[in-house]
Amino acid sequence: MNDTSTTLSLITQVSGALAIVVLLIIFCAWLARRCGFVSHGRTQGAAIVVKSSHSLGQRERLVVIEVDGQRLLLGVTPGAITRLSRLAHPAEAQAAAAPDFQLTLRRLLKRGKAEPEQ
């Protein structure tokens, strides 16, 4: 009787430890996906890239995607996906409008040297 109780106790302990390890692995995988450490099946050279998404309600969203170098604004509902507009690339607009950081820093440093210290 003593041998079967120790064997049963050992099997219970091992299976309990195994269940805890499996649950811990599942929880860590869920946490990694939730925090964004793991991409959701996207590859580096994906043909369609979701740039941003904004929720409009429980099931409606606005999504900006990039396909073949074009940015599209899509309206997504449970029943349909509708292209609302084509968008210009923000990088092109920012490059023309944004001043060069290095040039601005040089101007500020030169201006600081020209003024007398107080």
From TrEMBL:
Cellular localization per UniProt: Cell membrane; Bacterial flagellum basal body
InterPro entries given in the database record: Flagellar_biosynth_FliO, FliO/MopB
GO cellular component, one term: plasma membrane
Keyword Transmembrane helix: yes
GO biological process: bacterial-type flagellum organization
The entry's keywords: Bacterial flagellum, Cell membrane, Cell projection, Cilium, Flagellum, Membrane, Transmembrane, Transmembrane helix
Pfam family, one: FliO
First and last residue of the signal peptide: none
UniProt entry tagged with the keyword Transmembrane: yes
Residues spanning the membrane: 12-32
PANTHER family, A to Z: FLAGELLAR PROTEIN FLIO (PTHR38766:SF1)
NCBIfam families registered for this protein in UniProt: FliO_TIGR
Family the entry assigns: Belongs to the FliO/MopB family.
Protein name: Flagellar protein
Organism field: Pantoea alhagi
